[in-house]
Amino acid sequence: MVRSSTFTSHARAILALGLPLVGSHLAQMSLHVTDTVMLGWYGVTELAAVVLGASLFFVTFILGSGFAQAVMPMVAEALGRGDETQVRRDTRMGLWLSIAFGLLVYPLFWFSGSILLALGQQPEVAALAQDYLRIAGLGMVPALLIMVLKSYLSALERTQIVLWATLAAVVVNAGLNWVLIFGRFGAPELGVEGAAIASVGAQIMSLAALGLYAALLPPLRRFNLFQRFWRPDWHALARVFALGWPIGFTGLAEGAIFQAAALMMGWIGTVPLAAHGIAPEVTALAFMVHVGISNAATIRTGRADGAGNTEGLRDGAKVAILLSLGFGLVMVAIFLLFPGPIIALFLDRANPEFDEIVAFGSVLLAFAALFQIADAMQVIALGLLRGLRDTQVPMWLASFSYWMVGIPASYVLGFPMGLGGPGLWLGLVVGLTLAAILLMTRFWLRAPRLA
After folding, report:
1. DSSP notation for 131-166
2. Which end of the chain is more exposed for a tag (fewer CB within 10 A), N or C?
3. What is the tens place of the pLDDT at every residue in 214-225?
């Protein structure tokens, strides 16, 4: 067990790091919400096109962000052992890999219209989505560079700037959307292209702010982050690549299970699909809290491991788990006690299917309550393992749990066993629970033993 004084000190440190990151993650989600709401005011076809295009951009971004996320534990571990030169080397090569990935995937966005047509999308929607992505795709490089700088600054425990930069990007994006989508203040009315320009503009602004902060803040100048940036460091690049690509694929595998569940929910009917569209949005908001705690756990674990502080590493891990578990239990109670009012927040009461969607969505939130704890524990375990720079085996464990167990269980429970939508979500509970068990077991087997 963790002593009360030790628990308090670890909890304060984790929350000081994690809460600004939680706010940053929630603000990042609101960027997508802003685009969706404003294009919903503009036109249905335009909204469908941007939702489609943004989904393709996001899936690609998740894959490429693994290199950025790898920087966080590597910098934390280097700081723990006092190696400031390695901090610069690893972060700089994380920036290199992010630039390379962004350039390599841009043709995917340029030719996205043909790809979406091949996937059965309507020609008008596919054409508008391509218009959007040809511009928005230019933002992949700055978006990934922002992620690297966020990881670097978070590992340095400069999480406040991460929060404020993200909030500023939300404001800039909303303002540019208003001007460019609708043609306000004499600007041309650009529709989906205006939304894309606004996104890229917000990303460039955020990148400039974080880059200047990292380069010019007096306490950070000693790292000389951009010193001889053009010089390759093949050893560091290989280290970041080896740690980062499994993180990207793990995120992709987890995000895709909900997309697969949405596809299967569409086979059941429109009302279940509408309810499914709301319930994951609700659970995603709660999940951001666990992601923030997980990020803080990664940093604290990496620092402790680099410093050889075995007791601090294990105690910090226990505290992170308890904090996440406590919040998860609160969300379980909220989802079970107030499912109807929560679902109703997302709907127009004039909708003739309002009552039916609320009823079905309430059932889904009950199942969401079941996987709150499992989902929290699996993401905390991933964060702890990343702090130990262990990503390849966790990738396989998570992918096995999600795709070899969770999705087949969803299909069997939903269709052959006749449970429908609730069965699909019960399958997700099974997959996430298995992932939590396997990943937590992996961490405690890998965590350094007390002497």
Report:
1. HHHHHHGGGHHHHHHHHHHHHHHHHTT-HHHHHHHH
2. C
3. 999 999 988 888
